[in-house]
Amino acid sequence: MLFDFAETSARNRYKLLISTIVPRPIAWAVTQDARGVVNAAPFSFFNALSSNPPVLGLSIGGADVEEDKDTLANIKATGQFVVCLVPERAAHAMTVTAIDLPPHVDELAEAGLTPVPSRMVKPPRIAESPVAFECETHQLVPLGGNTLVLGRILAMHIDDDCMLDAEKCYVDTPKLGLIGRMHGGGGYLRAREDLNIPRIPLAEWEARHKG
User: Fold this and answer.
1) Which among 142, 152, 182, 132 has a CA at the least distance from the CA of 61?
2) Is Flavoprotein among this UniProt entry's keywords (predicted)?
């Protein structure tokens, strides 16, 4: 089945993308407005994009959004945000923060999540998240109905008990207990099972195919 995106509605393009590009990492973006009011919202249009400089990307918006979401408005106003990965143990709390609550409502309080002061930016991180990235705005890229927020990572927090060797930066990734976004309104995936396929060195590949 071929879908010509020039002839496919924005809504249907969205449905096709989220049903096929899976699993996607999911994370909270925690921001503050100019008055210090905290906002937290989950996003799955998110990923790491560069390690040097350390940059992650967060796409905010949608085809039917007429004004900036609180997250984007706060990032534009302050240039700071914290991205917190979502573990399975906080999955239900994450769905509470996805509710379209009024701007003055504290999503963290509504969801029973715990704010923890950050070290290098004003917005807090979430204690229940095993991994958090303190970010400042690197670039904002307009994408029609969405805005791609490129955030330069200033600092990263990882729970102590999820480190195998801090000096070597070895992380016990399965112990993070993270979830990924799947298809449908409530589809998620536990990141528990590994499919371990080692990379093949060029010399080994050439040795296999000599002659």
Assistant:
1) 142
2) yes
pLDDT tens digits for 108-121? 999 999 999 999 99
**Which tens digit of pLDDT belongs to each residue from 27-60?**
999 999 988 889 999 999 999 999 999 999 999 9
Query: In 10 A of CB 185, how many CB atoms?
Result: 4
Amino acid letter for position 54: P
Own/partner contacts of 5-13, CB < 8 Å, gap of 24 or more, are 10/63, 10/145, 11/63, 11/64
In Å, what is the CA distance from 171 to each residue of 117, 187, 189?
A: 23, 26, 20
The Cα angle at residue 150 between residues 168 and 13, in degrees rounded to 5? 115
How far, in Å, CA of 82 to CA of 79, rounded? 11
Q: Please enumerate in sequence order all residues whose Cβ is within 8 A of that of 195, keeping only pairs 6 or more positions apart, or say none.
A: none
Q: Comparing C-alpha atoms, which of 34, 80, 35, 36 is closest to residue 58?
A: 80
